[in-house]
Write a structure and sequence with these properties.
single chain; mainly alpha; 2 strands; about 70% helix
Protein backbone atom coordinates (compact mmCIF):
# COMPACT_ATOMS: atom_id res chain seq x y z
CA UNK A 1 0.00 0.00 0.00
CA UNK A 2 1.27 3.44 -0.91
CA UNK A 3 1.84 5.66 2.11
CA UNK A 4 1.20 9.40 1.87
CA UNK A 5 3.84 11.88 2.93
CA UNK A 6 2.85 14.53 5.51
CA UNK A 7 2.57 17.09 2.68
CA UNK A 8 0.36 14.74 0.66
CA UNK A 9 -1.75 14.00 3.75
CA UNK A 10 -2.33 17.75 4.19
CA UNK A 11 -3.26 18.06 0.51
CA UNK A 12 -5.60 15.08 0.87
CA UNK A 13 -7.45 16.72 3.75
CA UNK A 14 -7.82 19.96 1.78
CA UNK A 15 -9.15 18.10 -1.28
CA UNK A 16 -11.65 16.08 0.76
CA UNK A 17 -12.97 19.28 2.34
CA UNK A 18 -13.17 20.95 -1.09
CA UNK A 19 -15.15 18.03 -2.55
CA UNK A 20 -17.64 18.04 0.32
CA UNK A 21 -18.00 21.84 0.10
CA UNK A 22 -18.69 21.54 -3.64
CA UNK A 23 -21.29 18.83 -2.95
CA UNK A 24 -22.92 21.02 -0.31
CA UNK A 25 -23.03 23.98 -2.69
CA UNK A 26 -24.44 21.79 -5.44
CA UNK A 27 -27.26 20.40 -3.32
CA UNK A 28 -28.05 23.43 -1.18
CA UNK A 29 -27.46 26.49 -3.34
CA UNK A 30 -28.81 25.23 -6.66
CA UNK A 31 -32.33 24.51 -7.76
CA UNK A 32 -32.40 20.74 -7.32
CA UNK A 33 -35.76 19.45 -6.29
CA UNK A 34 -36.17 18.00 -2.81
CA UNK A 35 -36.51 14.47 -4.21
CA UNK A 36 -32.89 14.58 -5.45
CA UNK A 37 -31.58 16.25 -2.28
CA UNK A 38 -33.27 13.75 0.00
CA UNK A 39 -32.44 10.62 -1.96
CA UNK A 40 -28.68 11.08 -2.52
CA UNK A 41 -25.54 11.51 -0.45
CA UNK A 42 -21.78 11.73 -0.91
CA UNK A 43 -19.94 8.65 0.38
CA UNK A 44 -16.97 9.62 2.63
CA UNK A 45 -15.00 6.38 1.99
CA UNK A 46 -15.36 6.82 -1.77
CA UNK A 47 -14.28 10.48 -1.56
CA UNK A 48 -11.19 9.37 0.37
CA UNK A 49 -10.42 6.82 -2.35
CA UNK A 50 -10.81 9.50 -5.03
CA UNK A 51 -8.38 11.81 -3.28
CA UNK A 52 -5.89 8.99 -2.68
CA UNK A 53 -5.89 7.99 -6.35
CA UNK A 54 -5.63 11.64 -7.40
CA UNK A 55 -2.58 12.10 -5.17
CA UNK A 56 -0.98 8.96 -6.62
CA UNK A 57 -1.44 10.46 -10.10
CA UNK A 58 0.11 13.75 -8.97
CA UNK A 59 3.05 11.90 -7.41
CA UNK A 60 3.58 9.94 -10.64
CA UNK A 61 3.46 13.11 -12.76
CA UNK A 62 5.93 14.93 -10.50
CA UNK A 63 8.33 11.96 -10.48
CA UNK A 64 8.16 11.57 -14.25
CA UNK A 65 8.63 15.31 -14.91
CA UNK A 66 10.93 15.93 -11.94
CA UNK A 67 12.93 18.77 -13.49
CA UNK A 68 9.94 20.47 -15.14
CA UNK A 69 7.09 20.41 -12.59
CA UNK A 70 7.13 21.65 -9.03
CA UNK A 71 3.37 22.19 -8.65
CA UNK A 72 0.57 21.24 -11.01
CA UNK A 73 -1.89 23.94 -12.09
CA UNK A 74 -5.53 24.25 -11.07
CA UNK A 75 -6.72 22.83 -14.39
CA UNK A 76 -4.82 19.57 -13.89
CA UNK A 77 -6.09 19.42 -10.30
CA UNK A 78 -9.68 19.79 -11.53
CA UNK A 79 -9.13 17.40 -14.45
CA UNK A 80 -7.63 14.58 -12.41
CA UNK A 81 -10.13 14.96 -9.57
CA UNK A 82 -13.00 14.90 -12.08
CA UNK A 83 -11.52 11.82 -13.74
CA UNK A 84 -11.52 9.89 -10.44
CA UNK A 85 -14.92 11.22 -9.37
CA UNK A 86 -16.36 9.88 -12.64
CA UNK A 87 -14.66 6.51 -12.27
CA UNK A 88 -15.43 5.93 -8.58
CA UNK A 89 -18.85 7.66 -8.52
CA UNK A 90 -19.08 8.79 -4.88
CA UNK A 91 -22.68 10.04 -5.13
CA UNK A 92 -24.88 7.29 -3.74
CA UNK A 93 -28.66 7.08 -4.03
CA UNK A 94 -30.70 6.15 -0.98
CA UNK A 95 -33.58 5.17 -3.24
CA UNK A 96 -34.43 5.17 -6.93
CA UNK A 97 -35.50 8.57 -8.24
CA UNK A 98 -39.14 8.48 -9.29
CA UNK A 99 -38.97 11.10 -12.03
CA UNK A 100 -36.41 13.19 -13.84
CA UNK A 101 -36.44 16.96 -14.00
CA UNK A 102 -34.76 19.00 -16.72
CA UNK A 103 -31.73 19.61 -14.48
CA UNK A 104 -31.46 15.93 -13.69
CA UNK A 105 -31.65 15.08 -17.40
CA UNK A 106 -28.72 17.44 -18.04
CA UNK A 107 -26.75 15.88 -15.18
CA UNK A 108 -27.56 12.38 -16.39
CA UNK A 109 -26.23 13.24 -19.86
CA UNK A 110 -23.06 14.77 -18.39
CA UNK A 111 -22.47 11.84 -16.01
CA UNK A 112 -23.16 9.33 -18.80
CA UNK A 113 -20.60 11.01 -21.04
CA UNK A 114 -17.98 11.16 -18.29
CA UNK A 115 -18.66 7.59 -17.21
CA UNK A 116 -18.79 5.79 -20.56
CA UNK A 117 -16.65 7.91 -22.86
CA UNK A 118 -12.88 7.86 -22.80
CA UNK A 119 -11.74 10.89 -20.85
CA UNK A 120 -8.33 11.37 -19.30
CA UNK A 121 -7.34 13.81 -16.59
CA UNK A 122 -5.34 15.75 -19.19
CA UNK A 123 -8.38 16.00 -21.48
CA UNK A 124 -10.53 17.27 -18.64
CA UNK A 125 -7.81 19.72 -17.61
CA UNK A 126 -7.84 21.16 -21.15
CA UNK A 127 -11.65 21.42 -21.10
CA UNK A 128 -11.49 23.35 -17.82
CA UNK A 129 -8.69 25.57 -19.10
CA UNK A 130 -10.67 26.58 -22.20
CA UNK A 131 -13.94 26.87 -20.31
CA UNK A 132 -12.20 29.28 -17.93
CA UNK A 133 -11.25 31.52 -20.87
CA UNK A 134 -14.90 32.13 -21.82
Amino acid sequence: MVKLTPEEQEQAELRVVAIFEAWSALTEEHQFNSEFKNSSYLSPPLVSEIVFRYLCDVRRIKEFHRSEIENINEFKIAGYLTYWICKIRPVQLKEQLRRLTRTQNLLNELFYTLKYRTTSGDTLAQIYRYTDLF
